[in-house]
Here is the input.
Amino acid sequence: MKSNWDKYLDPPDEPEIPLCEGCGHEMVEFVHGDGYYCKNKFCPDKHVGIMKEMAELIVDQAETIDSLKAKIRRLELVNRYP
Here is the structure.
């Protein structure tokens, strides 16, 4: 038998924010709740042709930049504390 205290042990699940399949950014729910859309203006799924290829390159370069920034932070920490 469950008591009133059990609701604190099993909190309700928070809805997960879906991620865009094209770019990996968080998606935003439409105003009327009919679904989600990507708020990234460089998302490849929003473009066609050469613009889509360029948007894919931007996403790839953004991932490269993020990984290089993480490596720089790690190197700075290693050099700070030899």
